[in-house]
Q: What sequence folds into this?
């Protein structure tokens, strides 16, 4: 099963310790074949909304930027519980903040 783990923006500023711990975590998941992709996301983005045949395109940043995604990891694990455990480990490394996990279908 594949899961998309999304990190929301936080006020935490990374330091050398965080970079080292995150690097080790990413290396562990990569060697285990669990990590499929990871990356940070620009804070602005573009919003597309549609009503009927009309599509509106709006450039960010948006007022609710704290609700946006700041980064992601795509993992392949055997269960939802495994994805939650990986997210717990991630949260312990990065500290206060929020992440979401969603199963990827297909």
A:
């Amino acid at each position: 099963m594949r899961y998309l783990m999304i990190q929301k923006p936080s006020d935490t500023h990374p330091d050398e310790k965080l970079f080292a711990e995150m690097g080790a975590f990413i290396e562990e998941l990569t060697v285990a074949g669990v990590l499929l992709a990871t990356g940070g996301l620009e804070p602005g983005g573009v919003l597309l909304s549609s009503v009927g045949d009309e599509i509106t395109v709006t450039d960010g940043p948006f007022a609710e930027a704290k609700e946006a995604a700041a980064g992601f990891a795509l993992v392949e694990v055997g269960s939802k519980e495994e994805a939650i455990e990986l997210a717990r480990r991630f949260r312990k490394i990065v500290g206060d903040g929020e992440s979401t996990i969603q199963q990827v279908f297909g």
User: Anything to note?
Assistant: The two ends are 10 Å apart (CA to CA). The chain has one domain: 2-104.
